[in-house]
UniProtKB/TrEMBL annotation:
Domain (EXPERA): residue spans on this chain: 68-204
Keywords for this protein: Isomerase, Lipid biosynthesis, Lipid metabolism, Membrane, Steroid biosynthesis, Steroid metabolism, Sterol biosynthesis, Sterol metabolism, Transmembrane, Transmembrane helix
Listed transmembrane segments: 38-57, 113-135, 185-205
Bilayer topology: Multi-pass membrane protein
PROSITE patterns documented for this protein: EXPERA
Family in the record: Belongs to the EBP family.
Subcellular location: Membrane
Organism, scientific name: Cryomyces antarcticus
A UniProt-annotated Pfam family: EBP
Main location: membrane
PANTHER family for the chain: 3-BETA-HYDROXYSTEROID-DELTA(8),DELTA(7)-ISOMERASE, STEROL ISOMERASE
Organism taxonomic ancestry: Eukaryota, Fungi, Dikarya, Ascomycota, Pezizomycotina
Domain of life of the native organism: Eukaryota
Descriptive protein name: EXPERA domain-containing protein
């Protein structure tokens, strides 16, 4: 009877706001800042990053096309995922943003195996390579498009698996990681992650078309040499 009372009390007054109810979130501390405050600081930081990137790129390559400049900024903004075990207790900007996003997917705070592996690959591979690609775009390095295609495929593949594993658990195992409010699912979970398919998809298409053009030109050069 006492166990039942405790379980009922926990359901009525949960230790944290994440779903599924009762999931363990180690060291959870509630955020100190509200969402508008966090977004204002975050976008302010992004503006500084973009402006600094713009100044560096224009100094190195003053006539870089606008589309290329946007691609550089995208790759510079790639993120690193570190210290996943302790994010629930972090009260700095990124810790609180992480906890806010986890309202749409609590796997980011529960040491979920898939999310851990995915973010480890991001931190160790896609993150650093993104900065390499950004530098290669700036200096017009010939390896730019092969690496851009590689990173973009990695981002798209990871995002598809991210959606698929969550939907499998939801529809097959009846486990929901998002809070019931619609804006958490459609705004945070769906829209914010869909960006990581759309932009890498455009960059992948760009690399494929540029690579095809390069092979076409090389083929014409080889034919002209043979005809001489």
């Amino acid at each position: 009877m006492e166990t039942l009372k405790n379980a009922t009390k926990m359901a009525a007054d949960p230790l944290h706001p994440y779903y599924p109810l009762g999931v363990e979130v180690v060291g959870y501390l509630a955020n100190d800042w509200n969402v508008p405050q966090m977004l204002a600081i975050f976008f302010g930081g992004c503006a500084v990053i973009f402006y600094t990137t713009y100044l560096v790129v224009k100094r190195v390559h003053p006539h870089l096309p606008r589309g290329e400049l946007y691609a550089v900024m995208w790759f510079v903004l790639r993120y690193f995922a570190l210290n996943y075990k302790h994010m629930a207790g972090y009260q700095d900007l990124f810790g609180q943003l992480w906890k806010e996003y986890a309202m749409s997917d609590s796997r980011y705070l529960t040491q979920n195996a898939f999310v851990l592996c995915m973010e480890t690959v991001t931190a160790a591979l896609w993150g650093p390579l993104s900065f390499v690609v950004a530098a290669m775009i700036t200096v017009q390095h010939p390896l730019r498009h092969p690496l851009q295609a590689l990173v973009s495929i990695g981002q798209i593949y990871g995002d598809i698996l991210y959606y698929a594993t969550s939907m499998f658990d939801h529809y097959i195992l009846d486990v929901t990681y998002s809070r019931p409010e619609a804006y958490y699912f459609w705004g945070y979970y769906f829209f914010m992650n869909f960006i990581w398919i759309v932009i890498p998809g455009w960059l992948l298409y760009n690399s494929i078309t540029e690579t095809a053009k390069a092979f076409e030109i090389a083929g014409k050069v080889n034919k002209s040499k043979k005809s001489i």
